[in-house]
Amino acid sequence: MTSAVDVAKYIRSKVDLSSEQQLQDLAYYMQAWALAWTGRPLFDEAIEASESGPVTPALQGNQDEADPDAVDAQTALIVDVVIAHYAESSSDSPREDAPWREARDTADEEISRDAMSRYYSKQSLDGAGPKPPALAYDDADESDLDAAGKANAERWRELLALLAK
To answer: pLDDT at position 62, please?
Structure first.
């Protein structure tokens, strides 16, 4: 998995940032939209709800060791779409969105990935925010699909029999 520092280095290679908080906001949005679109985080590092906005502590300080080439093609698609949507916008602020507010209201330091996924999935379904990129996925193994289908058929066998009556 790509690290938050690698993603930040990639962001810096794509856009001139006006502040460190803009980098923090973009990293937050990238994580949130990745969760909404793929169900998986873009990076493992936690995002905290500081008073100034979302903060990924790993991004504070020296990022010279980061490798922007570590960002794979799918991650780059997500990052590029989020940059295109938010980088020029000064009106969007994650401090207006529920996941940050909930974390601040409950005095949790970390913004929950579940909260981000729920909120931004709903936003995406409502047509708000950036348009999801066309992401490529590996083809599923046919034998795995067959096994999953059989397992689910067995799991629901009794209920399906009742419904058939």
So the answer is: 66
151 within domain boundaries: no
Distance CA 154, CA 149 (A): 9
pTM of the model: 0.78
CA-angle at 117, arms to 111 and 122, nearest 5°: 125
Residues 31, 46: Cα–Cα separation, whole Å: 10
| pLDDT per position as a tens digit, 88-146 | 665 567 777 889 988 988 866 899 999 999 999 999 999 999 999 988 766 778 888 88
pLDDT in tens, 148-159: 889 988 899 898
Cα(30)–Cα(142) distance, rounded to whole angstroms? 32
**135 assigned to some structural domain:** no
Position 119 in a domain: yes
- Taking alpha carbons only, the member of 18, 8, 82, 15 closest to residue 45 is 8
Q: What is the DSSP string of 46-113?
A: --EEETTEEE-GGGSS--TT--GGGS-HHHHHHHHHHHHHHTT-SS--GGGSHHHHHHHHTT-SBPPH
Is 97 contained in some domain? yes
